[in-house]
């Protein structure tokens, strides 16, 4: 499972906060999202001191990017699915670009989600369909190693399905069928893994008792951090 942490540096009068995801790669990448959040992908063996030095070196560019996105103003909460809106995907903010085309398609690259559509009024439906398609790909991918981890406890879910739910991120039936809310595709990977892990714990402990939380803490020590982040960004 990839490691994610947070850090910051002081650059002049500005404090630059950023999230770091340690992954299998050779170089460090820095992304500034439209909401001003800064995300880094770093090699697994990179030290915080090395990362801080590189962030300091790129600080001018980072602050310029933040000012650029700030120039668009604060996005409205009511979605109109028009160019310039900010939308989440896997915890990152992307700026929407909508253009008329002979085809209907959704692409994403860097900090942009581009929707090609025959009729601009269909942009919202196309984006939501794309979200569901990504959930169908990503959720089983993220769940696989966690399910393998729980096999050590002698449990395996009967199924893992994706279904829209109004008030729940996930649920686990008495006979072991787990359902995950597709809206989670907007949340960071660790938030999705938290929900999956939470529901897998219910295969062993049905109720939210102290044994349940002891198991959850054992298999995912920082679960409260990801629960709080999920509630903060999607609720």
Question: How does the SSE layout of this entry go?
Answer:
Layout: E1 3-11, E2 14-23, E3 29-32, E4 38-43, H1 48-57, H2 59-70, E5 86-89, E6 92-100, E7 105-109, E8 112-117, H3 123-150, E9 159-162, E10 170-172, E11 177-180, H4 189-201, H5 210-219, H6 223-234
Helix pairs in contact: 3-4, 4-6
Polypeptide structure, described:
This protein has helices at residues 48-57, 59-70, 123-150, 189-201, 210-219, 223-234; strands spanning 3-11, 14-23, 29-32, 38-43, 86-89, 92-100, 105-109, 112-117, 159-162, 170-172, 177-180. Helix content is 36%, strand content 27%. Helix 3 packs across helix 4 and helix 4 crosses helix 6 (223-234). It contains 6 helices and 11 strands. The protein has 235 residues and is an alpha/beta fold. The longest helix has 28 residues, at 123-150. The mean pLDDT is 88. It has a 4-stranded mixed sheet with strand order 1-2-4-3, covered by helices on one side. Strands 5-6-8-7 form a 4-stranded mixed sheet, covered by helices on one side.
């Amino acid at each position: 499972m990839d490691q994610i942490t947070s850090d910051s540096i002081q650059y002049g009068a500005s404090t630059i906060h950023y999230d770091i995801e340690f992954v299998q790669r050779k170089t460090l990448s820095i992304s500034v999202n439209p909401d001003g959040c800064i995300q880094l992908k770093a090699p697994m063996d990179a030290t915080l001191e090395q990362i801080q030095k590189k962030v300091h070196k790129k600080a001018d560019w980072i602050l310029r990017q933040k000012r650029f996105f700030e120039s668009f103003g604060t996005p409205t909460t009511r979605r109109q699915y028009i160019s310039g809106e900010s939308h989440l995907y896997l915890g990152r903010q992307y700026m929407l670009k909508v253009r008329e085309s002979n085809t209907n398609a959704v692409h994403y690259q860097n900090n942009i989600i581009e929707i090609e559509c025959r009729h601009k009024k269909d942009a919202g439906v196309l984006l939501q369909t794309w979200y569901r398609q990504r959930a169908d790909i990503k959720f089983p991918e993220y769940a696989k190693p966690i399910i393998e981890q729980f096999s050590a406890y002698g449990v395996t879910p009967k199924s893992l399905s994706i279904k829209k739910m109004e008030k729940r991120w996930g649920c686990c039936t008495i006979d072991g069928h787990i359902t995950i809310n597709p809206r989670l595709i907007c949340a960071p990977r660790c938030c999705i893994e938290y929900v999956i892990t939470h529901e897998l714990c219910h295969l062993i402990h049905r109720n939210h008792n102290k044994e349940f939380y002891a198991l959850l803490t054992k298999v995912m020590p920082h679960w409260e951090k990801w629960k709080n982040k999920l509630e903060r960004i999607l609720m």
